[in-house]
Amino acid sequence: MSTTPGPRFVPLRVVEVIDETHDARSYVFNIPEDERDAFAYRAGQYCTFKAEVDGITQLRCYSMSSSPDVDEPFRTTVKRVIDGVVSNHINNSLVAGDTILATPPAGVFCLDDDDNRPIVAFAGGSGITPIASITKTALAATDRSVQLLFANRDAASVILGPELDALAEAAADRFTVSHHHDDVGGFLTADEVANFLGDDLNVAVYICGPTPFMDLVEQTLRDLGHDPELLRTERFVNSATTEPDEPPSTDDEPGSITLTLSGRVHELEHHAGETILEAARRGGLNPPFSCQAGNCATCIAELREGDVRMRVNDVLTPDELAEGWILTCQSLPTSSTVSVVYPD
User: Are 209 and 237 in contact (CB under 8 A)?
Assistant: First the structure.
């Protein structure tokens, strides 16, 4: 094997902390001079952050709320969530002058360079983070217009509110933002989504937010006949979850996984429909992972024996695949036995 194509963590120093709401803060980072090329990013991308919480290494992805196409520093925004081990740790303890480890930017939730269609964006809660970055780039680097529907619990929960309002005022001919507050109008409905989209379906749609919010918008788009090729989504994944989102199928006979983690060998039973990562976590192990979407490589491992099928791979190159590297969060065993080794 050649060098491991897994994530490389770089210490970033916090130069400013900005209180956005009662439960969200933005963090402005100084990028070391010799890492500036590595941390060049596209609007909509994220970094994977590593934090030690109660003696356990935790990895989480947070999007940049800044844009590389306007004059502003490198910034991420982190919202507290219920039982959010890392988000709460960051909001509680990370202050100016501290450092935190982060990977160079990754992710594919970005503007399509060859698309000039108008943009209709739907953001829920902290899903505004990559949407704001994309909006700023679209207005600064293209001639495209942007309509944004931003849903929140209430007015006090609106992250980046003043920034969005200032942007709408400065680019009134190309950018509009409509706010939906659950405490006033109840939960967002399909009719509201349809009315916001309007009759012109030849638009690029970007969606980011909690799963129920995204499911509603996506289903409404399908019902309206919007072309799925014009849809871009970024889904939140609750990394604290210890079970697969859906129960694995039990139609097939269980297989087995030999998994080596931190030098220790573990024998696991594999259930049909279950990824290697899901099997490892069901077995009580704590392997590295972050995005669970196939585009950050935090969960990378070497396939020593057997065969797998990856649902998604937005990271590994053909050469890396040929060398045996896999994304365990996306890998479904297709042989009765597999052997996987996580890099040290």
Answer: no
Task: Please report, for residues 161, 176, 193, 257, 339, the alpha-carbon distance to residue 148 in angstroms, rounded to integers and kept in the order given.
Answer: 12, 6, 11, 46, 47
Q: Which helix (H) or strand (E) holds 337?
A: strand 337-341
d(CA 197, CA 218): 12
Pairwise CA distance, residues 30 & 54, whole Å: 26
- CATH 3.40.50.80: which residues of the chain? 119-235
pLDDT per residue over 126-166, tens digit each? Answer: 999 999 999 999 999 999 999 999 999 999 999 999 999 99
pLDDT, one tens digit per residue, over 256-306 is 999 999 999 999 999 888 999 999 999 999 898 888 888 788 899 999 999
Cβ–Cβ < 8 Å for 323, 297: no
Question: Which H/E stretch holds residue 202?
Answer: none
Where in the chain are all domains bearing CATH 3.10.20.30? 255-341
pLDDT, position 319: 83
Residue type, 57: T
Cβ-based neighbours of 332, under 8 Å, separated by 6 or more: 273, 274, 275, 276, 308, 309, 310, 311
Q: Give the three-state DSSP class for 87.
A: helix
- The architecture in CATH of the region 10-102 reads Beta Barrel (2.40)
What is 119-235's CATH number?
3.40.50.80
CATH superfamily assigned to domain 255-341 = Beta-grasp domain (3.10.20.30)
Domain with CATH 2.40.30.10 in the chain: 10-102
- pLDDT band of residue 4 (cuts 50, 70, 90) is low
- Which stretches within the chain are classed as H helix? 85-93, 128-141, 161-170, 182-185, 190-197, 211-224, 276-282, 318-322
